[in-house]
Structures are given as structure tokens and as C-alpha cells.
Amino acid sequence: MRASLVIPTLNESASIAFVLRTFHRAAESANQRFFYRNPIDWEVLVVDGASTDGTAEAARKEGARVISESRKGYGRAYRTGFAAATGEVIATADGDASYPVDEIPWLLLDLLEHRLDFLTCDRLSYLDSKAMTTEHRLGNWMLNFGLRAFFHSALQGAPARVLRDSQSGMWIFRREILDRLRLTQDGMAFSEELKIEVLLHGLRFGETPIHYSERWGAPKLSSWRDGGRNMLFLFQKRFEVSRERRRGLDAHRLERPEGAPR
Hints:
262 residues, alpha/beta, Spore Coat Polysaccharide Biosynthesis Protein SpsA, Chain A, 7-stranded mixed sheet, 7 strands, 39% helix, globular
């Protein structure tokens, strides 16, 4: 099986080499222990947003394929990376060492053994006290509450207690599901949009806790600005789904508009 790891970066030269080396060691170990009959052929794609500190060069030295993306946005980087990925399965992580990339091969094993389409990671259950500010925690709580309230019906068919962490940026999923999803967001709201779309389509969804750590380098997230935009997106998405249903269309079966980027 071929699998892809997609990592968006912006000035992550202090951490990207550590992240990639950690992942490669874990992938090699997993191939020897659990996938020895059919080793996983991993490709690593780093989608770099015009870094000025040598991030791209550091990633290439560690064997990553670097894709330059001049258009701004967390979601834009992922949509570009997903379009370029060649794996049957796609995993994601950040380049700042906050996500445990050494767990990705075991997440793949979990996805395959439980026959899931999409597995997301819960940062909140085992959260390091230094990894998230009080503002960030409060923002996550509000967005989690909002998503559960607005999309309660979509969560009805999901496993119990699923989506404890709607803002997590570490996922692993089957690439084939992308053709069924409407992904439009270029910013931070992409993370919740992706999960909402998976749930609306009734795909096999899972969530597992991870150890989320303090990031290397200065934070780029603005809790109130980005949180406000994400909450606005939830309102807009809920209105869009309701409108389509009132028009007699099945929101689960909406087709991507012709020519729309993935």
C-alpha cells in the first residue's frame, strides 16, 4: 500500500527536520513489526507557504517532496497537498512538532483494522498543560459546542463521544472519500469543514486520543480572530445544509461544482 503524509509549513525550520526524522523512524519500525508482509510505501509532502527561514530546504534534506503554495491559508495548503498526494491513504500533521507523528503508522493500522474511512485525533484528553493557552482552550470548547449543536443530527449516527476535538489537525483517511466531499475553506475552518462533510456523508468515522505537545517556535494562531472565523463558518455551513434540504436536495449527495478546486 502507498500512503501519503501531508504537512503544511510556514517558517518551521527549527522543527521540521525533527518531525520528519521522527516519522521516518516510526514508519520503518512499523513496517518491520506490523506491516512486514506488505510494507507501507510512505511519501511525505511538505506544502510550504513561502517560508523565508529555510524550511523547504530542510524538508528536502530529510527526503520530503516540497510543494510551494503562494496562496495563503491552512486549508489552502491542505487542499493543494491532497491534490498532489498519490497514496491510497492520506495522513496529516503540523510541522511544529506539536502532533505525535510517531503514532501515524499505528493510526493507519487502526484505520485499516476497524475499516474506517476517516480517523481524527483528539488533542484534549491527554493535553499537556503547556500546549494550549487558556484562550485557546476556551475557543476550542466554544467551537466544539457549536459544532455539536448545529450538526446534532449528523452526529446521531456516529460512534459515542465522537468529535470531542473538532479543531484537531491530525487525521488519517482513505483518499477515495475526497471525491465525495465539498471542501471550500482556505483558512483554519477547513479542519471542521472536513469533519462535518465526512459526517454528513455518513462515512465510517472514528476519533482517538493523542498526546499533543507544546509547539516549537512562536504561535501563528490567533485564538479570537481564527476562532471567530470558525464560528462564523459553522453558522454559514448550517444555513447552507438547511437551505439545500428545504429545496428538496439531499445534502449528503451534493456534487462538487464543475471546476471547483479540491
